[in-house]
């Protein structure tokens, strides 16, 4: 008999996507520093890669996770949003709660 995993709820999916986005952002910062250091120019020469070049090269991954969060929020039903927000406890500063509250307000559900 196959073990079929149940689909994850909105709260859990957002939690995962936000964590992945944060990890990508942290890795991006390290990559940017490493790229600039690895391509340090000889005295009097222009750098082979600037921090802006490194930023552009690595930012796409962070953008992908941000887009995933937006897609999850946009595709969720009103009931899923409010249920996930209740599940979050509505804690100020909690990334999932903040993302959900922003979408709830955008849709005018809190009025």
Defining key terms:
111 residues; mainly alpha; 70% helix; disordered N terminus
Q: Could you explain the architecture of this structure?
A:
The structure is a single chain. This protein is an all-alpha fold and 111 residues long. 70% of the residues lie in helices and 0% in strands. It has helices spanning 10-38, 51-75, 78-88, 95-107. The longest helix has 29 residues, at 10-38. Residues 1-6 have low confidence and may be disordered.
Summarize the model shown.
With 111 residues, the chain is mainly alpha-helical. The protein is 70% helix and 0% strand. Helix 1 packs antiparallel against helix 2.
Helix/strand-derived class? mainly alpha
Distance between the termini: 48 Å
- Multimeric status of the protein: single chain
Number of helices: 4
Percent of residues in helices comes to over 70%
> Quick check: average pLDDT?
77
Assess the beta-strand content as a share of residues. under 5%
State the low-pLDDT regions, or none: 1-6
The radius of gyration is 19 Å
Number of strand segments: 0
Backbone shape: elongated
Helix and strand run: HHHH
Largest sheet: none
Strand and helix map with partners:
Layout: H1 10-38, H2 51-75, H3 78-88, H4 95-107
Helix pairs in contact: 1-2, 3-4
